[in-house]
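User: Sequence in, structure out. Go.
Assistant: Echoing your sequence, followed by the structure tokens.
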Amino acid sequence: MTTASKITLVRIAMIPFFFAAMLMDFKYHEIVSLVIFAVASLTDGIDGYIARHYNQVSNFGKFVDPLADKLLVISAMVIFVEWGRMPSWALMLVLTREFAVTGLRLIAVENGRVIAAAMSGKIKTFATMICIMLMIFNIPDTLNTVCVWIIIITTVVSGVEYFVKNIDVLDLRK
């Protein structure tokens, strides 16, 4: 197993600790949650850099890296829905986009094509991570609402871009 994949697995292993820190009521649990989430988020860039820079790109890494990202983000959003900081329909929108883009990528791979991450997808990921880090704290409702809308808008824009740029993969004539 490559170093990059090991780092990705560490990110996955951090998710239950993040989840527990978010849900437990102890002094500074928000700060502990933030640190765990931030470190886990940073490992995404680190494992990607190592994989590309040291030629450690693997099929396992291609599968598990985006899965780790989705699990980390969705775990935070599930808690935000429970806490009333995010409406359930917004979480459903995020999940729908993730499933749809993953499905599009699977169809593309089946046809011998790889759909690389688009810039809008990278912006969505960065904006979502920052908003989640803010939303971990009991921020003012207005700022929380802004964060939710940033997540929604970047999610929709990036999802639409993936489909517009790759609609030919679906071959709707069949």
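User: And one key feature?
Assistant: The two ends are 40 Å apart (CA to CA).
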